[in-house]
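Two proteins, back to back. First:
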Amino acid sequence: MRFGPDVKSLLRKLILGYSLYFSNGILNSEGRKIFEELARMLIYEHPEYKSVVKKVRNNPTLENVLKIGRIVLGDEADRLLELAIYGPYSYDIGIKL
């Protein structure tokens, strides 16, 4: 299914800005502004996702936002979250447990 570039861009912004837009795992006011714009465009393009968007509006946790992220971006949503939390570098200190 095809999604508009604006929907994808806003979703990427929301996930990559995890530390800015989420407080204690819940969307804060700035995150809600971005999400509402994203939701409006998503429902306009694909009305069949209205129920999913409604659930996220009622309970705007990170996991619920990622549900929409997985629908729109696929596996990229999980990679973006990992990048937002851990950063672009991976360290291997050589200790085997």
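And the second protein:
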Amino acid sequence: MQTITDMMKRRPVAWFFAILLGIELVVVAVFLSNGAAEVLEAAIRATGLPEKTDFVSAGRLVALEPRSWLGVSLSILQPLSPDIAAFLVAGLAFGLAGVVVVVRRYRFWSRTVGWKRGLRTWGLMFFTFLAMSLATAGLNFHFAPSGSFEWVNTPILSWSFPLALLTSIFLDIGGVTEETGYRLARVRPAALIPFRSIDVIEPPPPPLPTMCSR
């Protein structure tokens, strides 16, 4: 066990992707081999619910068709695998201190960013997402064949639309689980703990002068 811990400390990112791939393969194999995929598709057809990827829609599907619980759970577990891998590597390689560092990365902005810049960034992202979504809806309305793609089934000029929009932004299963999991993996130990981001790479030192250099 100590050998594995030492190997994880030396190559935490490599171990992250190895564990992630293992979880993904197991989840997909179970999903396709035990009939969960067929039951999930049948439940969606029976309820008539749109195929959305947010937690609210997943909960509604299970409430209406309880037999779909396994397919829904596996569908959530698959994008959750990066988070599981990140916590496993942090815990096994660096102990409780590593887990604490990973948990602290679940925040809207860092201390160095500050709340003012953080709010501006979140506002910019929100309006960018809204503009791109409306542009997608417009392109779909003008160019996509009728019935081929449904951007939204909620009337835009209604009180339900803002709630549906916020749900799609903040409760999307992939956005909440998979994308945050990959961001958690972008860390490595600076010395022991805390981690530092691997996308901040220190430049190599300048070469030492030699006898031949002028």
